[in-house]
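This part of the workshop introduces the protein records we will be handling. As an example, a complete record with its sequence and its structure tokens follows.
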Amino acid sequence: MVKRSRITELFDIEYPIIQGGMVWCSGWRLASAVSNEGGLGLLGAGSMHPEVLREHIQKMKQATTRPWGVNVPLLYPQIEELMGIIVEEGVKIVFTSAGSPAKWTAHLKQHGITVVHVIANSRFARKCEEAGVDAIVAEGFEAGGHNGREETTTMALIPLIRKTTKLPVIAAGGIGSGAQMLAAMALGADGVQIGSLFALSEESSAHEAFKRYALASGEGDTLLQLKQLAPVRLLRNRFFEEVQKAEQGCASVEELKALLGRGRAKKGMFEGDLDEGELEIGQVAALIDELRPVAAIFTSLLADYRSARETLPLL
């Protein structure tokens, strides 16, 4: 018998496990597989043109009858079109990130949509409450991709956010096992959002070369880069070394923007260019060494969670 949490109640899901809506990884195959296993799958709209998002939404409707949602970075240049499609297609759950929760929360909720916002500090937790969101994702420094400037780890961030707000809190960053899920719950989280583990699944839309490269990574093989622009956690490769050299040489913002160019994440994660692409993955990738289907990942997560819970020492 699974004990219900505020997150399973909010989304009407079996397990409080949310799949991160990651760019170039989170298409309909991954999201529907997670939802069908009892978690909450999310489409990653940040790497989709508006009509591509519509296509993935329609395929989700065919692939699962269980709850699912869409993650939308609020800095997306065609945000109005994305939000229009989300409303038109009857999406029930939206996770927003990379911007103020005040921008779109009221509009989405007017259309009966459950809204969750991703944050990395307590100040934005208060803004989320003011905006009327239904839950918060608190993402720690360990996470892959774009990250908070504060560099607060998940271990410290979750208690800080829990102390700040009464909203349901979903822990993210550095969670790739059932034991890590249990630790997040013990710190006050109502659920967890998992990115890297699902990015390196069989159903992920990331390129196979990227997956294999990330699976072979070890401790210390990711670092936060481009802090003058928007901090992003990357695997070491040729592009990484170029950025690191430029930053150590006190490159200007304009020089870093020129070095970054356009489409680096697509080039690395979706097209498999391991030299010149951005390879975004979390620190927890060092613990992942096998490419598995989502069903096997869920089996392992749940078994490890229960084992960790049962073997904790009693003080």
Notes: The radius of gyration is 18 Å. Residues 294-311 form the longest helix (18 residues). The chain has a mean pLDDT of 95. The chain has two domains: 6-206+285-311, 219-284.
